[in-house]
Amino acid sequence: MTTAAYQRILLKLSGEALMGDDAYGINQDVVARIVAEVAEVSRLGVQVGVVIGGGNIFRGMAGAASGMDRATADYMGMLATVMNAMALADAMRAAGLNARVQSALRIDQVVEPYIRGKSIRYLEEGRVVVFGAGTGNPFFTTDTAAALRGAEIGAQIVLKATKVDGVYTADPKKDPSAERFAKISFDEAISRDLKVLDATAFALCRDQKLPINVFSIFKPGALKRVVMGEDEGTLVYC
Predict the structure, then answer these.
(1) Which among 19, 199, 217, 225 could disulfide-bond with 56, CB atoms 3.0 to 4.6 Å apart, if both were Cys?
(2) Residue 196: is its pLDDT beyond 90?
């Protein structure tokens, strides 16, 4: 069996990824496809942590923009991520994966609280750990949660799963001549003002020398190719 390039990864999934073409909520067919991709790399022996967003149910920024208190809106967004984490873990169990949900907010009757040592032990046992509720704090995005959890669990890379297959010189939907970067340094990404992750998350990854790969979760086999170290997506390196 070919050895994977990374033995422990942190996969960042947006809530919107779970919608598919729906306008709202969780599309079970899309979730099943994503889980199949995760299962493929998990069965290679790769330890997988997942941070999930909540934008398919509620976005804190949108709530704040409509006049809601920002902290209240962000906490509501965190609860949405817990719902997504539960749905994702349930689909993983149905696919034969051993999955655990850990929440940065205490909801003990529903999911267990985030405890770093426990999450690392689960990973070492071959379980997929899904982290819900972001960082547990308002004013921080789930991108920042991905960077934070990735650093905490000792992940070798943060994989940002998006609808686009990498980082481009310009928006590929608006500029047909835009070219994808195979890899780019943190410093060059900053100088070009490329929006890889939000500023806080990006700075944390850079400071912790934690590389990032941006790839399309909707491209069949892309996650496995990234994990195997193939030319897939865009690698942002120190």
Answers:
(1) 19
(2) no
